[in-house]
Design brief:
There is one protein chain. Helix content is about 40%, strand content about 20%. With about 375 residues, the chain is an alpha+beta fold. It starts with 5 loop residues before the first helix and ends in a 27-residue tail after the last strand.
């Protein structure tokens, strides 16, 4: 036997009452207007004064109806925004300030003003293999990209605990994306049959997988995403400059995946991950956003940049550069190693470009 909770019963009983109350005021205003026209002797007169009073009455009625409709629309908009905020918190969960000994900060900005979430994704998880993070960018932005973001993030949150290698995590993400696109193609084109031949072929996701070991060892696997920047001792430089692998979606991943070993992230150093919406943002004259210059100012102001302050400085400069209206979704993720490690003699390195194997959302 299925029991219905009392709260659900009360909510169901309140819905007809709310609908009746929503119709009560327009009905009352309409009744006042009709009663005035049919009953009031002044409304039957043809004089200028009588016509002025009649116009004033109907103007008041019309104004009341417009204000009532406006208030109803505003209430509905607030309700939709609350739902969108809840969906965003469930999908791009606010990151804790510390994960596995790293100071973490993340922020996301959707280019779609009607959406609280865009096509960018990120997550940081502490696992037995080290702290693992993902930064990704789904083709498109706004509501249409949410399903793909959910599929990729859900797969990542499971795979990082199960798979010992980043290459295996990437293949799990690839399979999850392929399943999602097949299901979406079937729902959009049910007449195509059980297995469409070319499911949403134009869709793709750029993904950057990052792993930071217990001693600060940095490993990266890049599928079509911008490389992170290293902030260290007043310097700013990309972690790597090689061509990344193709994005997930259009083509299968190659049999051998190149996981780059990028030295160590030492205490006091920060890695900044970002989507291409940052560097591709343009101002009114078509100039690209100078991310390197903004980061250089951040490390010049303080030798040990605080992730939250770095993200705040970037977003402030970005919104000023784009006049408050970026054309693409933007996501930033900063990880600062503030672990108190004793460096081993001869093993010191930093998270910068490797000399071998040269081939390729805390919300602010």
């Amino acid at each position: 036997m299925i029991r219905i909770k009392p709260g659900i019963r009360r909510s169901a009983r309140r819905r007809p009452l709310c609908r009746a109350l929503a119709l009560a005021l327009p009905t009352l205003w309409g009744a006042v207007a009709v009663s005035y026209k049919m009953i009031c002797p002044l409304a039957q007169q043809d004089g200028l004064g009588a016509r002025a009073v009649t116009c004033a009455v109907f103007f008041a009625v019309g104004t009341g109806l417009i204000l009532h409709v406006r208030q109803a629309l505003l209430r509905e908009l607030r309700r939709v925004r609350r739902i969108a905020g809840a969906a965003q918190s469930a999908l791009l969960r606010p990151l804790p300030p510390r994960v596995g000994g790293l100071n973490v900060a993340a922020a996301q900005l959707s280019a779609d003003r009607d959406a609280a979430i865009g096509g960018d994704l990120y997550e940081v998880v502490a696992t037995e293999h080290g702290v693992r993070a993902v930064m990704g960018d789904v083709r498109g932005h706004g509501i249409a990209a949410i399903g793909t973001v959910a599929a990729v993030l859900g797969s990542f949150r499971e795979a990082v605990h199960d798979e010992p290698e980043l290459a295996s995590v990437a293949r799990r993400l690839e399979r999850a994306l392929a399943r999602h696109l097949r299901e979406r193609a079937r729902s959009e084109h049910p007449s195509a049959g059980a297995e469409p031949d070319n499911p949403v072929a134009e869709e793709f996701v750029t993904v950057l997988l990052l792993e930071i070991g217990p001693e600060g060892e940095v490993r990266l696997l890049n599928c079509g995403h911008p490389w992170p920047h290293l902030l260290s001792g007043g310097r700013v430089e990309p972690v790597a400059r090689a061509d990344p692998l193709p994005p997930l979606g259009p083509f299968p991943l190659p049999p051998e995946l190149d996981v780059r070993h990028c030295g160590r992230l030492l205490p006091g150093e920060t890695l900044l991950l970002h989507t291409d919406g940052v560097e591709d943002a343009r101002d009114g004259r078509g100039r690209f956003f100078p991310l390197g210059e903004v980061l250089a100012r951040c490390v010049r102001d303080t030798q040990v940049p605080v992730p939250q302050q770095v993200l705040g400085s970037i977003f402030t400069a970005l919104l000023r550069h784009t006049a408050g209206a970026p054309a693409d979704d933007v996501a930033l993720l900063a990880l600062c190693n503030d672990r108190r490690l004793q460096p081993t003699s001869g093993a010191r390195g930093t998270a910068r470009t490797a000399t071998t194997h040269p081939q390729p959302t805390t919300h602010l």
